[in-house]
Amino acid sequence: MPVVFRWIFFGCLSRSLITMSALLAIFIIVESFDKARYLGHGLDAALMIEYMLLKIPFMLAEFMPIIVLIGASLYLIELSRNQELVAIRAAGMGISKILIPLAAVAGMAALTSFIIGEWVTPVTNQRLDSIEEIHIQHKQSNKQGIQWLKDGRSFFRLTPLADHQFAMLVLKTDPQGSWLERIDSPRASYSNGVWHLSKALISTPTDDQMMHMEQRETMEIISDIGPEAVELPNAHHMNFAELHRYIGELKHAGLGTGAYTYALQRKFSAPFACLLMVIMAAALCLHAGNRNNQASWGLVLSLSLGLAFYVFGNAGYLLAGSNRIPPAFAAWLPSLVYGGTAVFLLLRREGH
């Protein structure tokens, strides 16, 4: 590993770790003051500490691009003020000698963000929401996800979809428990004691141990058993495979996939944004010489753009959830805007 690469890589990495520690410390202080009012009213000290620790993975996954942006900006400003960029340029090294180690740090951050978002936050977010709902909002939830209901000798398996719709599986059995008929429907709804099924596939066994299958566009099943209290699966509780499978179920039922498609695309767009942030930092803070005024403005712009990136991402989530813009586009829009702006500013700075 070349000396210059190690020098820039470890310098940027250390500033990013310091930035991460500072942001986490600020978050813990602010969140502690906010949640302290619930102590003795549903929260105790142990539960509050658990809440804070569980929130850290969410914060890291959410703010990793901003951490990289600020860390890289601080390091590049330090290089500028210490005249070290002048030495790099005088040695005939191009911008790539600076960007490659910065991109390596960003790649590590992106990988860490993806791992946390895929295997850690789906678990911690479930526990966080449970603490929030039961111990802070004092709601005793009896909601559930997939249900099995029984009506006589018929068994209903319901998977909640959007707009009070369900993916339904019905098994009808004889008194001995052997199945007589199976009905699969990608979309069903319940009203006034009747289940309304769309695209129902009916399977029945035949005497020669074969299977007879019949497709109906619509079908009704009279039943006193309706859906119990249910809640849709939370996109923040799902990993990539679960999101992909549930989106397929929604599409099969002809329903919108808004928030779930957004969450799926964010699993890739958020880590990718880490790579774009080092380009933005270089475009704003890469100054040859001791230009304190320019360096200070570069840091201010980096902090402002980092905050704007977070706000921009939340706005995209709201627009995708309300079907104002395509969810995949909403997930990638902040990265595309920031990436395009960063590349333009850097090329302009380099005289291209």
Automatic annotation (TrEMBL):
Provide the transmembrane region boundaries: 7-30, 56-77, 98-120, 268-286, 298-319, 325-347
Q: Known InterPro entries for this protein?
A: LptG/LptF_permease (IPR005495)
Q: Any idea which UniProt keywords this protein has?
A: Cell membrane, Membrane, Transmembrane, Transmembrane helix
What does the record say about its membrane topology?
Answer: Multi-pass membrane protein
Cellular location(s): Cell membrane
The record's Gene Ontology biological-process terms are: lipopolysaccharide transport
Residues annotated as signal peptide: none
Sorted alphabetically, the Gene Ontology cellular component annotations on this record are:
ATP-binding cassette (ABC) transporter complex
Q: What is its main location?
A: membrane
Instruction: Supply the Pfam families for this chain.
Output: LptF_LptG
- PANTHER family annotated for this entry? LIPOPOLYSACCHARIDE EXPORT SYSTEM PERMEASE PROTEIN LPTG (PTHR33529:SF2), SLR0882 PROTEIN-RELATED (PTHR33529)
Indicate what this protein is called per its UniProt record.
LptF/LptG family permease
Q: Please tell me the species this chain comes from.
A: Mariprofundus erugo
